[in-house]
Amino acid sequence: MHTRIIPSSGAALPVIGVGTYKGFDVGAGAAQRAALSEVLRTLFSFGGTVIDSSPMYGRAEGVVGDLLAAERSQAAPFIATKVWTQGRAAGIEQMRQSLKLMQRKSIDLMQVHNLLDWRVHLATLREWKAEGRIKYLGVTHYNSSAYGDLEQVMRGETLDFVQLNYSLDEREAERVLLPLAIDRGIAVLVNLPFGQGRLFGKLRGKQLPPWVEEIGCISWAQVLLKFAIAHPAVTCVIPGTGRPEHMAENCRAGTGPMLDESLRQKLIAYWDAGCR
């Protein structure tokens, strides 16, 4: 799998990860857990490492922790989760609980979820980073209505990561936030690359353009992921899934030829002409 550099450290990060919203919010049933264990094994087999979660995602953090504890792979996962509450004390308690649930002594990336009480939590995250409890810190949002607030934080604060929504039909991040991430040396995690599934609805029944064979794509999912990866600001894309076959398909989008700028613009023109 291709990798991108995290600007604040120079470390390489694989370009495809997995989000755990909904898909990993499951009980203790053996069949459900077995499928999710295979999702993680598939991710690791392709060279992926990034697993993104949140206290907002129900039981997902605990499920990830249990599965990783049982996983005998030598892969070293990159664990990202979030703080999603108000107040310093509540934030600290929630992050301690995340460490416990995910069975980690430290977290690779702790993010302020949807900018909730971000000033308070970023101060705590800086302390935790200095103490070695987390390696990186960042902020997230999933809606373009929050881009103005994200821009304010990205301009005014020192961040390792920002997580935001970016897809073929939601390209507003290209205007300010993605160039700003490059200028400020902030790594970018992309959520909702499929637009919460709505892109598949719009693309249903449409044949893949023949020129996508140049980049080794055999499905619209791979085209959409390669589109997101193609932007130079993007570090890693984290589509959510609880199905091993979808994880494998997603991971293949992180391998082989990538969209160059001419093909990227060709795809945008194709979308704008017939899919909006």
Fold and architecture overview:
The model has no long low-confidence stretch (mean pLDDT 95). With 276 residues, the protein is of the alpha/beta class. The protein has a single domain (3-196, 230-256), classed as NADP-dependent oxidoreductase domain (TIM Barrel, Alpha-Beta Barrel). Strands 3-4-5-6-7-8-9-10 form an 8-stranded parallel β-sheet. The protein has a two-stranded antiparallel ribbon with strand order 1-2. It is 41% helix and 15% strand.
Number of strands: 10
Low-confidence runs of at least 5 consecutive residues? none
Rg on CA atoms, Å: 18 Å
Class from secondary-structure proportions? alpha/beta
- For the residues shown, what is the average pLDDT? 95
Distance between the termini: 31 Å
Broad shape: globular
Strand content: 15-25%
Element pattern in H and E: EEEHEHEHEHEHEHEHHEHH
- Count of alpha and pi helical runs: 10
Oligomer: single chain
Number of domains: 1
How is this fold's topology laid out?
Blueprint: E1 3-5, E2 12-14, E3 18-19, H1 30-45, E4 50-52, H2 60-70, E5 78-83, H3 88-101, E6 107-112, H4 118-131, E7 134-140, H5 147-156, E8 161-165, H6 177-184, E9 187-191, H7 198-203, H8 220-230, E10 236-237, H9 244-252, H10 261-274
Parallel strand pairs: 3-4, 4-5, 5-6, 6-7, 7-8, 8-9, 9-10
Antiparallel strand pairs: 1-2
Helix pairs in contact: 1-9, 5-6
